[in-house]
Amino acid sequence: MPYTIPTSLELTVLDTRITPAEKQAPGFSVELRQILVWMCVIIGGAALVTMTPMGSRWYLAVGTIVWILLFAWMFLRADKFRRFKLWQVVAAFRMLPKSARLVDADPSAPVGPIHDLTGVKSVDTPLGVDGPAVLNMVSGRVGMAYQVVGNASTVLFERDAQQVVESYEVFLRRCEPDWLVVQITVRRAQSVHRQIDAAKALAATERVKNNAALSKLVADKIAQLEKVGRVHHTTQQAMLVTASDLDSLRSAQAMLQQTESDRSLALRDIVPLTLRDVGGLLGEIYGGRAQTLAR
Fold first, then answer.
1. In the chain, domain spans
2. Which pLDDT score, from 0 to 100, does residue 27 have?
3. DSSP state, 237?
4. Closest Cα to residue 181, out of 294, 275, 62?
5. CA distance readout (Å), 94 to 86, 87, 99, 100, 105
6. What b/e sequence results for 120-131 when a residue is b if at least 16 CB atoms lie within 10 Å of its CB, and e otherwise?
7. Separation CA 95–CA 92 (nearest Å)
8. How many CA atoms lie within 13 A of 170 on its CB side?
9. How far is CA 220 from CA 140, 211, 214, 232, in A?
C-alpha cells in the first residue's frame, strides 16, 4: 500500500505555500506569511513616510525604510519555533580570530579538541591496516563503520518500494537496544585507492620495470585512476554501528553478516571500512557533504 509523510502539527495557515502557474513563474513558491509580512512592510513604510513627520527629512525617511526592511528580514529569518537566529551572528563574531578557526594537529598539540569534534578517541586495527577498523568513542562506546549498498536504486514498481521499506523495518527491529545505528549519506570522490595500490604493486615487479612499454602502460593506468578519483564523484551510503562493549559489537556484526547472507532487500552489500576508509569518511562528514540519520 502507498504511504505518505504526514504534515507536521507545527504548521499553521501562514505556512501555506502559494505556487503560481508553471508558465508564469516556473519553480517559484512563497509562503503566505512572507506575502503578508511584505504587504505590511510596504503599506506601513509608505504610511510612516507620507503621513508622519518622518518624511520631512530624507535621512529620516531612508532610516525608517531601512529599519522596517531589517525588521521584516529578521522576522522571516526566525526558525520554526519563532526564535530569531541571533546566535548565528554571535558565532560568526567568535570565529573572527584566526585562533578560533584553527585546530592544532602537530604531534605536540593537545588532541582533545579533535576528539570532541569527531567523537572518535582512537581507532584500532586488530587485523592490520587493511582489516576492519574498530572505533573507540569518547563516550566509552566502541563501533565499526561499514559501506552499505541498498536496493532502493533498483526499485521499478510501487510494490517493490514497499517491500524495501518493510525489509528495512525488519532489519531495524532485529537491532538490540544497546546498538546505535547511524545511517550516513556522503557524496564523495570515487574510491580508487585500492586499484591504484594494486597498479603500483604491479609497476614495482621486475617484469614491468624491465619492459618500457608495460611500464608506460601501467603509469598511464595510474594517472587515469587518479584523474577519476579527482573528477568523478558518487553518492555512497555508510553505516556506523556502536555498542557499549566489544561483545555487543560482535553481535551487531554477526547480525549484519546474517542480513547480507539472507539476500534481504534491506541491505544488499555490507563491507567493513578499513583505517584509511574511516579517515576518508570522517573527512567527508566534517567537510559538510554528509547527511546522517540515527536510529
1. 13-91, 104-190+232-294, 191-231
2. 61
3. E
4. 294
5. 13, 10, 10, 7, 21
6. bbeeeeeeeeee
7. 5
8. 13
9. 47, 14, 10, 18
Beta bridge partners of 269: 149
Q: Are 146 and 273 in contact (CB under 8 A)?
A: yes
Helix (H, G, I), strand (E, B) or coil at 184: strand
Per-residue pLDDT, 259: 82
Task: Find the DSSP H helices in the chain.
Answer: 32-51, 58-76, 86-94, 112-118, 158-173, 193-203, 206-209, 212-231, 246-261, 275-286
Q: Are strands 290-294 and 269-272 parallel, antiparallel or unpaired?
A: unpaired
The residue behind cell 527491529 is: 173
The confidence score (pLDDT) of residue 11 equals: 62
Q: Which fold has domain 104-190+232-294?
A: Alpha-Beta Plaits (3.30.70)
Per-residue pLDDT, averaged over 128-134, amounts to: 83
Return the amino acid letter for 144.
M
Residues recorded for the chain: 295
C-alpha torsion angle, residues 288, 291, 292, 293 (rounded to 10): 160
Which pLDDT value is given to residue 295? Answer: 44
DSSP H/E element including 236: strand 233-243
d(CA 46, CA 63): 13
pLDDT above 50: residue 4: no
- Pick from 14, 46, 47, 33: nearest CA to 75: 33
